[in-house]
Specification:
The chain has 321 residues and is α/β, with parallel strands linked by helices. The chain is 45% helix and 15% strand. Strand 7, helix 5 and strand 8 form a beta-alpha-beta unit. The protein is globular.
């Protein structure tokens, strides 16, 4: 008997958030009977045609038709319309009821907001698109939102990062159902490069994600750091560049940027190392020295801490031709 997968959508979903996981589960068949391995339904608040973020609409069932149906996997999709959908209390009540009838639930991108609104993420770890982290955490303080992971499985509640990370999560769900070999074959068929572990970083631009210096107070300093990565960049040198005392600089920097100066320096060094790994054939040891890590081991530790994989693994996956 096929397992039922339900995707929850609404006007303004990101089509790729839906299409990626949908393709992972579609076209699979039972080995013995040849029947479809999964039955798939798209469900919206009222049913009917639902527009996406591009010029394609999708046909859906009404959520009321699914509140009393056993569901194997319930997945809420992300998109610009998610906050309007979350404001529909009747829709959220139906999502909550569907989740109660589901063996497992999940979300793609900021679709986590719908699960949070339905109470499914209370006291659980959760991932979402890096640009949606703050709003999710601010609006739902009971949720333990994490910035970096591609996806998280907390007791059968799955949440994934932005857009294509939904494919990673779907492949992990497939591996849970049918084994890693099946998931790997599916990844190969979809020409996706690997089956990533959930703890791996989203590979988003670290500074874009973390720096809150919208006033531009430290823009020149950041540019100077990037141009002098091999130099001594302790807080004393940074304060001197800003013509401030160490104490005043440190307090102003942390208050404005939300990171310590040392953390920013390490982040810029790692970001530069990533770019060099992607775009050059420079050896890892030489990159370590050029970026101010002094030796390969220090680069490896920092890179793994920020990105979730070693420099060599990163280069193997992302170096341009």
């Amino acid at each position: 008997m096929a397992d039922q997968i339900v995707f929850v959508v609404y006007p303004g979903i990101t089509l790729l958030d839906l299409a990626g996981p949908l393709n992972v589960f579609s076209g699979l068949h039972q080995t013995a009977s040849g029947e479809a391995r999964y039955d798939i339904a798209l469900v919206s608040a009222e049913g009917g045609t639902v527009p996406t973020d591009v010029m394609i609409s999708v046909e859906t069932d009404a959520s009321a038709d699914w509140t009393d149906v056993p569901i194997h996997t319930l997945i809420t999709i992300g998109g610009t319309g998610v906050y309007a959908a979350a404001a529909d209390s009747a829709f959220i009540a139906k999502i909550r009821k569907m989740a109660q009838n589901a063996a497992r639930v999940g979300s793609v991108c900021n679709g986590a907001y719908l699960l949070a609104a339905a109470g499914c993420l209370d006291h659980r770890r959760a991932a979402t698109h890096w640009d949606a982290v703050k709003r999710l955490q601010d609006d739902f303080p009971k949720v333990r939102v994490e910035v970096d992971p591609v996806y998280i499985n907390d007791g059968g509640v799955w949440t994934s990062a932005g857009v294509t990370a939904g494919i990673d999560m779907a492949l992990a769900l497939l591996a849970e159902d049918l084994g890693r070999d099946v998931a790997l074959r599916r990844a190969q068929y979809l020409v996706t490069y690997m089956v990533r572990p959930g703890g791996q970083s989203q590979f988003s631009a670290v500074l874009e994600r973390q720096c809150a210096d919208r006033s531009g107070t430290f823009d020149e300093l950041h540019a100077w750091i990037a141009q002098n990565l091999a130099d001594d960049l302790r807080v004393e040198q940074l304060a001197q560049y800003q013509n401030m005392s160490v104490r005043s600089f440190y307090r102003a920097y942390v208050s404005t940027v939300g990171l310590t100066p040392a953390k920013t320096v390490e982040t810029i060094r790692v970001d530069t190392a990533r770019e060099l790994l992607e775009t050059t054939k420079t050896g890892v040891k030489a990159i370590a020295v050029r970026c101010g890590f002094k030796n390969e081991e220090r680069l490896r530790r920092a890179f793994t801490r920020h990105v979730g994989v070693t420099p060599t693994e990163y280069r193997d996956r992302f170096q341009s031709a």
